[in-house]
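LAB NOTEBOOK - FOLDING QUEUE
OPERATOR: T.R.
BATCH SIZE: 2
PURPOSE: Compare the predicted structure-token outputs for two unrelated chains run back to back under identical settings.
PRIORITY: normal
REVIEWER: second-year student, initials M.K.

ITEM 1
FIELD SEQUENCE / FIELD STRUCTURE:
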Amino acid sequence: MLDAPRPGAVIGVDPGVHGALALITCTGDLVAVADMPILRDGAADRASVNAPLLADLLAKWHAREVFVEFVSARPNEGAVGAFSFGRSRGVVEGVAAVLGLPIRFLTPPAWKRLVQIAPGKADAKDAARAEAIRRWPDKAALFARVRDDGRAEAALIAAAGLAREA
């Protein structure tokens, strides 16, 4: 059964197999988070974003727009890792397009600036978790584990998208 439509709600996406998605209302209330739906069904048992599972999730959330972290190959990243990250971004783009969801990309420095997280690598994941817990203290358990940084980043990317529109 599909959830009720949420007028004005947006989705934030931290792409990649360790990423996540978050749904927030137009007023910034966190409604839901989900780890990126993946399956280990590819070559060499590597995890990959599963398009049908992602489509099901996005369709049930009834958002008006999707904000995605703009990712690209990183320095010193191997070809397999870069291809996997690019494929994840493509799956997210393709699923959003099929569902008719407008998609906008935010670079890491841009979304971090909009939610007041210092740029740079040092402690960036913990800073995202701390900011998510500060913004949504009633949902702190969603960001409790170190590996929940993708959830925190997805929620903050959605919040940054809303701030960018304001």
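ITEM 2
FIELD SEQUENCE / FIELD STRUCTURE:
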Amino acid sequence: MKKLSLVIPCYNEAKSLEALTDRALQCAKKRELTPEQFELVIVDNGSSDGTDQVIDSLMKGPDKRFLHPVHVEKNQGYGFGLFSGLRAARGGTLAWTHADEQCDPEDVFIAWELQQKRGEKCLVKGRRYERAFGDMLFSRGFELVAIVLLGQYVHEINAQPKVFDASLMKSVTNPPYGFPFDLYVLLKAKEAGMTLESIPVRFPPRKHGQSRWASTFRSKFKTIAGMVRFMWDYRRSNTKIGKPLGISTFL
């Protein structure tokens, strides 16, 4: 079994993918990880911009043994693509981050080193800084809704990376296909008795393309509505959440 699998879901990230892959493999090699110990799971999540061609080119390169491509024929959402990659991963520890170059793969390995020290009952995630005020307000709004509907303060829900023991996937059985996937996994981690720790991560502006869920007022409204609906449905389906809870802090 490999030590670490890093899953990166890609939707129309052809311009970013080669540089991102180079950076991830550079970080792995710096830690002397071999293809038998580390894999980069690249998920083509139904892209239409030639992402598949970039992946094909990478698979012909000298580092192809590190790469594990996963092709999703039709985009069914961020969560579906990510779940597809996690199910295909072969590592004892799993991680994911984004493909838009806002998230440095180095953060994944820093988080992984901390997670290895803490053990299988710890999930390590990012805690973003140097963000625009509007983006921070957006995140704080999700956290407030989580307090109201779930009785939990879940800090920086969508901050990357996420790094955790592969055993958690036994609980990830019916995830949302969209943006709430991160929150779903964090809730499942808590239910499994895992502690959460965070590392500070820088979150610069995108170099290419636009965010699907926060680029316009309409997309932001749709994202907010989807998150609120997911929290409400999760509360209704989970008897523990449905009862009054103290505030549990995700750092």
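REVIEWER COMMENT (ITEM 2): The chain has one domain: 2-250.
FOLLOW-UP: none requested
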